[in-house]
Write a structure and sequence with these properties.
Elements (H helix, E strand, L loop, with lengths): L4 E4 L5 H13 L5 H7 L7 H6 L2 E5 L5 E10 L2 E9 L8 H15 L4 E5 L5 H6 L3 E7 L7 E8 L3
Parallel strand pairs: 4-5
Antiparallel strand pairs: 1-2, 2-3, 3-4, 5-7, 6-7
Length: 155
């Protein structure tokens, strides 16, 4: 199977990418009340896309399969988003997005890629080489703790 292409997100895709993120999050079995709590935090805005750092995995017809976003500051990078449409899971989009995130972080001078992971995604990040270093608070739900992971980017 050919790896999906990765390209920059386009501002006009913001609503469709936000819907993809919510479908992906809901895939882990969260109920409607939970999804309502995280909806605002998981929005992909045209402004965020214009600011750079948001990228999309696409199929041969340029349909989004997933998206990612990386923020870089002070020699470290944060994986801000990495979501794959449930219909595309298991087809290489997540691996392609993660590898692109690592390449962006390295290109930006980061030595570490930090990840605040959904518990359901923690095994994926481990398989990609990240390690769990503890827990950190959710940015959407007060009192909820999530796996805090990191990938060392130096060889």
């Amino acid at each position: 199977m050919t790896a999906p292409a990765i390209r920059p997100a386009r501002p006009e895709e913001a609503a469709a990418l936000s819907a993809l993120v919510l479908r992906s999050k809901a895939h882990w079995g969260y109920d409607a009340a939970f999804m309502a709590q995280v909806r605002d935090v998981l929005q992909v805005t045209p402004e965020a896309i214009r600011a750079g750092g948001v990228f999309v995995a696409v199929d041969g017809d340029d349909r989004p399969l997933g998206l990612g976003s990386v923020g870089i500051a002070d020699g470290a990078a944060e994986l801000e988003l990495l979501f794959v449409d449930p219909a595309a899971m298991g087809q290489g989009a997540g691996r392609a997005l993660y590898r692109h995130a690592v390449a962006m972080a390295r290109a930006g001078g980061a030595g570490t890629l930090w990840i605040l992971a959904d518990p359901g995604a923690e095994p994926f990040y481990r398989a990609m080489g990240a390690t769990t270093v503890g827990q950190a608070p959710s940015d959407a739900i007060p009192g909820r703790m999530l796996p805090r992971m990191k990938a060392e980017l130096t060889a």
